Amino acid sequence: MGTPEGIADQLERWQDAGIDGVNVMYQTTPGSFRTFIEHVIPVLQKRGLAQREYAPGTLRSACSPADPRV
Predict the structure, then answer these.
(1) For residue 1, which of 17, 30, 25 has the smallest C-alpha distance?
(2) What is the DSSP string of 4-50?
(3) Which of 6, 14, 4 is nearest to 41 (CA)?
(4) Which pLDDT score, from 0 to 100, does residue 60 have?
(5) 68 or 40: which carries more pLDDT confidence?
(6) Looking at per-residue confidence, does 31 or 45 come out higher?
(7) CA gyration radius for the chain?
(8) Distance (Å, rounded) from C-alpha 46 to C-alpha 42?
(9) Which of 7, 13, 31, 37 yields a CA-CA distance of 20 to 30 A from 46?
């Protein structure tokens, strides 16, 4: 819990320490995820810590590009 900037500060410190991912857990459904996406992600994007665009395709095709059946 905290401000979007405070949460982004902590995530940035963790990234600087070598942590390359986090799991976001919810307090209320679906509000917690929506709040994180609407308030924290924009701060992380401004800092260059979250993607703004993604390559086309699915995770499945990215993990197994040689075999589209997988």
Answers:
(1) 25
(2) HHHHHHHHHHHHHTT--------SSTTHHHHHIIIIIHHHHHHTT-S
(3) 4
(4) 81
(5) 40
(6) 45
(7) 15
(8) 6
(9) 31
Backbone angles phi, psi at 39, to 5 degrees: -115, -40
pLDDT in tens, 49-60: 999 998 888 888
Cα 46 to its chain centre, rounded Å, is: 13
Angle formed at CA 54 by CA 32 and CA 28, multiple of 5 degrees:
5
Q: Please give the structure tokens belonging to residue 4.
A: 């979007």
Would the pLDDT of 65 be above 90?
Answer: no
